[in-house]
Amino acid sequence: MTKNRLRATLTSCLLSGLLFTGLSHAATPIEDLTVVVPYAPGGASDRAARIVSDSLHQKLGIPVVVENKTGAGGRIAAQYVKNTAADKNVLILANPAIMVVAPLVFNDIPYKPDSDFQAVSMVTEYGFGVAVSADSDIKTMDQLITWAKAHPGAFNIGVPATGSLPHFFGLMLSQQIGSKGEIIGYRGSAPVITDLIGGILPVAIDTLDVLTAQHQGKRIRILATSGSERETALPDVPTLKQSGVELEASGWNAFFAPASMPADKVTQLGEAIKAVTSDPALQETLLKNELIPVSANAEETRVRIEQFRQQWAPVIQASGFKVTQ
């Protein structure tokens, strides 16, 4: 080897070593992680958070603690995470009600989703179902549409809460089929199901994690689901598009970091969460818990949330729905 080539080789190795060292020290170390869930234990968000957190603990080899901070539809948890100090590793597992709907329907909330938070990773999606009582003569979406147009004053749609995603999805559906339904907001899913089974409500819209067991138990009949393809747990139920209704929509659960978290940590966590949610075993666990797995890093999550906002915001704003505090 000539002196020039030796010098060039040594220089190249030195530069590579410096580059590698720089990269290895560029990422801020993450020694622990707290995941805040805005809802009570046992719900869909809580299950998703705990399933992913367990896998994240195994992958990163760090303590991952899940904390439930309930109240005000998730806004208390969002404010708590927003105010987290920069040296704390805290994420919130939030859904559209917190990050998209609340800013549009409340005149004043204690956080701004776009400036107070950073998207980290979307981990699950969930669909909606259009359901009738199992005793109803309505068997298909086509029959429901025909009935709704013939009985406009009776087309009442029960939803678990006024201002919820099922509420606004009901408005989307009414617009799409050309028959205005009256949205009836309840205080939770249980009374909706009770009135649907009892024949008091002709139609209900709720998330599939609520409706699926009732359908499988033959207490209600899901006419169609809102996703892009049939649900694994509901192979007998067509999508809305398969039923001739050009409507597709879903909600989601995604991890967000406070704006104070360094960008390199956000990237690290986004890639780590995407990696664990890409694992077939974890995906199977999510599916068994009636959660549709999603694998997305920070940038991919931002894109998907913006697409969601563009679809839903016009409907929410056009409804004129507002909550006064």
TrEMBL record:
Residues 1-26 form the signal peptide. Keywords: Signal. InterPro entries: BUG, Bug_dom1. Pfam families: TctC (PF03401). The keyword Signal applies. It comes from the Bacteria. Gene3D superfamilies: Bordetella uptake gene, domain 1 (3.40.190.150), Periplasmic binding protein-like II (3.40.190.10). CDD domains: PBP2_Bug_NagM. Belongs to the UPF0065 (bug) family. This is ABC transporter substrate-binding protein.
